[in-house]
Amino acid sequence: MTTLDEPKRASWLRRWIWGIALVSVCCLGAVGMVVQLLVDQSGDDDLGGQLLAAGCGNDTPVDPDAELPSIDGYNEDQIYNAAVIIAVGQELEMPVRAWIIAVATAMQESSLTNHGHLGDRNDHDSLGLFQQRPSSGWGTPEQIQDPVYAATKFYEKLATIDGWESMALTEAAQSVQISAYPFAYAKHEPDATEIVNALTSGGGRASAVNVNLGECTAPGELSAAGWMIPVEGPIWSGFRTQERPSHQGVDIGAPRGAPVVAASSGTVITAECNAFAPDGSPASCDVDGSPQTAGCGWYVNILHAGDYLTRYCHFGSQPMVKEGDVVQAGQILGYVGSSGRSSGPHLHYEVHLNGDRSSNGAVDPVAFMANVGAPLE
Prior knowledge:
Number of domains: 2
Number of helices: 7
CATH topology of the largest domain: Lysozyme
Number of strands: 12
Radius of gyration: 22 Å
Shape: elongated
CATH architecture of the largest domain: Orthogonal Bundle
Oligomer: single chain
């Protein structure tokens, strides 16, 4: 059995570190605004100006036996078990993305509880944090109920899966677990990211492939939280600015023909033309629009884990995906154009909470993307 070297002791805060940061939004000049931790993501128009500014983690090893932060909704035993999972990942030099996958898997399998045999409620001979089965070769009952052993075996199996680093979390977890409910893991990704952030001072905002913390995600890279920027370019117009209070996203000044990728894994729920002439009649999305044209032009909506929704507008041609497609983070959706209400090639990008496609669900993409480790600026 793999054992952990004794980690360095760390002093942990009981609550999250609250911070502020200065974000420059480009819209007829740079506008500075103070932003704060994204705490409660339900129905608050001011959420667009909230951001966690605690960095991208630090290299202090997680010590499960140290004083750990409290996290709403989880008891001390659950946080301890999550800390063990992360500490094992650090000891084995697994990338940060693996820690989130492992924590989310244990959340689904056991609610981060080290279960023994549950009698009639047991799924065959499944045991421990990951509900591993002795009859399937995971180890003896005693070994599987050791959180360090169980986490080690999970990571060892994950490391054998080709391309797991870029897979959707639910696909990577299922490749290890072979569960009867293969899509159940996805819903735990936001909470698993929150736990990893709390225990590592923001490790979910590091690059997915980083082994050590402290270095934030570079443009075009996948963050440990499973997000990446949809296209590179400066922000030309911000979220709900004084000049454009009904602007529900940001305009990214990417050149015509630049590929636009899915910002995170999810399911396409809209891929269509949305353009109308000034008289209200349908307009073509296969030609450049104008400020007088209404609508998003060729556009795509994607629903992600945690009921986050992203919207991508003004493609220059029909999107390369269709409704119902399951896409991976980084998969090309289409190419920058100027269809719909547009005065030139760019990507209009929106983020919505609770799966709400309306303006009520929209939040500032700059703050949201920075919080998930994929800053737009």
